[in-house]
Specification:
heterodimer, A: 142 residues, alpha/beta, seven-stranded mixed beta barrel, 4 helices, 9 strands, B: 415 residues, five-stranded parallel sheet, four-stranded parallel sheet, globular
Chain lengths: 142, 415
């Protein structure tokens, strides 16, 4: 295993947990239930899966900006992911995690991985995310 | 990229405009980094889509700003809430959601937001001017501001809309910049169904088509019906933003940044051309209905986006001289428009015709409709798009005249 990968911080914090790699983009609004913490989009291949405690790995977000509220509400209830690794910038996810952090101190870091590192990130079994104010590191556990 | 901070931004962050503004600016800086904005601009106004209750977090966020003594720094309007504060008896949902929804609306007022509670703030005295930099939320309001008025906003939403209002600043990126406002897709309407007397259905069909085909890309439309009104463009934008992620369209010869096709494209060639025939438009409109003609109706709902005074002026002659509606008829509108039609003496006439006026909210986002077992008819492409999923009802789409005729017949009837 190589050393930690460098990433950009979108929301600072630290997270560690099993990786949950989204097979397709997910809209938190209409696609995720903050009450149960489950994916409820009936067209999504991972419908029924829970995100709590996992480091969510997603290429990009999708859907309504109300997704920010749904993600923040899930983080308040403890049904949301421990951290999020993105392949492209996503304002909806960033805002949801930021607001939960400001209101509840629930640090759900959001980081942006480089495209070169993406295949390794998406193949990891477990991830550790350390996101400082600007730079972040992702440690892969195969 | 770290966005550049002007003196005002540094002052805001340092708390020189209060703790609430500092809190908002801190979130805005992070947001600006996430969208790669290079700095900030003064906002002239804001429109907030934060009054619908999505859970405890909705209240916690706004009440935190209230507790910090926050006041919005620019004129700020509010989108619909979860309840009709003028007619609270209409609410039929869970009482706790209703109470928290009302509390959320009041908390926004406590921040100095104007209690407009409408998705059509552009048809109130708060209509922005051409070229104004604004922070607007709610998909139909965003499209209208950019397209029909030529004000400049990105697709702001949850939390960030209010942060912009509290700071009086917007991140400098996207549609705030002239060069990003050019059209990418040419939409040519080759022919219109001659049997359609109202421009409304054609505009809804075109809006639906561009939503599907353009995603986030800006279209320039050529060949809309000559009689297309501001309300028809409102309907077009609303369904385009529901079916796709459209934040702006140009209608050549009708919208202010598209006096000519060349102006709309800022001299660039189209990336793609979409041609729509009368047959395509008929097909799209037919596809908006989930039930056939003749189906019994539970209700009729119009006014998504909120009905304007002009739309009421079109409705009144259709109602006069005919029998009272056989089923529930809802018209969603703003309290400002309600005051305007009351002044004309129309509310009593509407009531006598069997119309329920829904103010401050909308029938597709909250529990208002009394009878939902059966199909609902609408002239709104946006309502037809969302209601089957949100409310679990079947939908019939038709012109405003079709909706009135069907309300009297109690089943789907078209001219």
């Amino acid at each position: 295993m190589s050393g930690p990968l460098s990433a950009a911080t979108l929301v600072p914090g630290r997270a560690e947990g099993p990786a949950f790699v989204l097979a397709e983009p997910l809209s938190f609004w209409g696609g995720f239930d903050a009450g149960t913490g489950r994916i409820i989009d009936r067209w999504h291949p991972q419908e029924g899966a829970t995100l709590a405690g996992h480091v969510l790995v997603m290429t990009a977000g999708r859907g309504s900006s109300s997704g920010s509220s749904v993600l923040a509400e899930a983080l308040r209830r403890g049904t949301g992911p421990a951290g999020i690794v993105l392949a492209s910038r996503d304002a909806i996810v960033t805002v949801g995690a930021l607001v939960a952090g400001e209101l509840y101190g629930s640090a759900c870091p959001v980081v942006l991985a480089s495209s070169a590192d993406w295949p390794a990130v998406a193949a990891a079994r477990r991830l550790v995310v350390e996101a400082g104010s600007a730079r972040a590191w992702i440690e892969l556990v195969p | 990229m770290t966005p550049a901070l002007d003196a005002i931004d540094a002052d805001l962050l340092a708390g020189r405009h209060g703790e609430a503004a500092a809190f908002a600016m801190r979130l805005l800086v992070r947001f600006a980094e996430a969208v790669e904005a290079d700095g900030f601009l003064d906002a002239e106004a804001a429109h907030i889509d934060g009054c619908l209750y999505h859970g405890e977090v909705s209240l916690d966020f706004v009440e935190r700003l209230v507790a910090l003594g926050g006041r919005v720094r620019v004129p700020t309007t509010l989108n619909v809430g979860s309840v009709d504060l003028i007619h609270p008896e209409l609410f039929r949902g869970d009482p706790e959601t209703g109470a928290k929804g009302a509390r959320l609306m009041r908390a926004h007022e406590a921040l100095g937001c104007v209690p407009t509670f409408t998705c059509a703030p552009y048809q109130t005295i708060f209509r922005p001017r051409l070229g104004a930099q604004v922070a607007w939320a709610e998909s139909n309001a965003i499209v209208f501001a950019n397209s029909v008025i030529g004000a400049r906003t990105n697709r702001y939403g949850d939390f960030i809309d209010l942060c912009c209002a509290m700071a009086g600043r917007v991140p400098r990126y996207g549609l705030h910049l002239a060069e990003n406002r050019r059209a990418r897709v040419l939409v040519e309407i080759a022919s219109l169904p001659p049997e359609w007397s109202e421009a409304g259905p054609a505009c809804v069909a075109v809006g639906h088509a561009i939503g599907r085909a353009c995603g986030e890309r800006i279209p320039a439309i050529v060949g809309l019906p000559a009689g297309a009104t501001e309300d028809d463009l409102k309907a077009l934008g609303a369904v385009a933003a529901a079916a796709g992620a459209v934040a702006m369209f140009h209608a050549v010869g009708l919208t202010p940044e598209a006096p000519t096709l060349e102006a709309a494209f800022q001299g660039h060639p189209p990336e793609e051309t979409l041609t729509l025939s009368a047959g395509d438009l008929r097909g799209i409109v037919a596809g908006l209905s989930t039930v056939p003609a003749g189906t019994p109706l539970a209700a009729v709902s119009v006014g998504t986006p909120h009905f304007s005074p002009d739309e009421f002026a079109a409705l009144m002659p259709l109602l006069r001289g005919g029998p009272r509606a056989a089923i529930d008829v809802y018209v969603n509108t703003s309290r400002a428009t309600l005051a305007a039609i009351e002044a004309r003496g129309w509310t009593a006439e509407l009531e006598a015709a069997g119309v329920t006026l829904v103010v401050d909210t909308c029938t597709y986002v909250t529990a208002v409709m009394r009878e939902m077992s059966g199909a609902v008819m609408t002239n709104s492409g946006k309502w037809a798009y969302y209601a089957p999923g949100n409310l679990g009802v079947e939908v019939a789409f038709g012109s405003l005249a079709d909706c009135v005729a069907s309300a009297r017949a109690g089943r789907v009837t078209r001219a």
